[in-house]
Write a structure and sequence with these properties.
Elements lengths: L2 E2 L3 E4 L6 H8 L2 H4 L11 H10 L7 E7 L3 E12 L4 E8 L9 H16 L4 E7 L3 H10 L3 E12 L2 E11 H11 L4
Parallel strand pairs: 5-6
Antiparallel strand pairs: 1-2, 2-3, 3-4, 4-5, 6-8, 7-8
Helix pairs in contact: 1-3
Amino acid sequence: MNIEGKRVLLRAIEPSDLPSLQTWANDPAIQRMLGGWHFPTSHGDQLQWLSGLSCNARDQRFAIEAAGMGLIGTANLVSIDWKNRNAFHGMLLGDAQARGKGFGVDTIMAVMRYAFDELGMARLDTDIIEYNEPSIGVYVGKCGWLVEGRKVDAYFRGGRYWDKLVVGITRDRYHEIARTSGYWG
């Protein structure tokens, strides 16, 4: 099963995606914008990572594909908590040519529609490094997520500490935004 947005298709990650994923995993400019900690990634690391992915009920990872461009990034729903109906969402637009063209908004809207309308989730969360203005603009500015908190000095990048913004959206808020914006037509 694929997840369709208006401009993107979210599909399973395939072995043919690994060269792009490895390039993005080793790009310092991309990694600087992501949470967590990152180490140089080899082709073997990528193969091992891919073989560890499975169709489990807690973590789902998707390739983001755009017509005429092919693979442009990845998205996920991880740490799915089925009892409390929430999950963590993350997205990476690795292809620089795809940034600033609405693919991020469409990916987030497609993930929200899938999570809320297909999986029955009640809320989604993500974390954003305080200086990641593009992500703040997409999640908060364009997709209606709310900054719900701040963890002071949670990330160490470039020789100093930065705050982690805790960002989230509920099913009801998503439905209101989708309805008032007319996003899905």
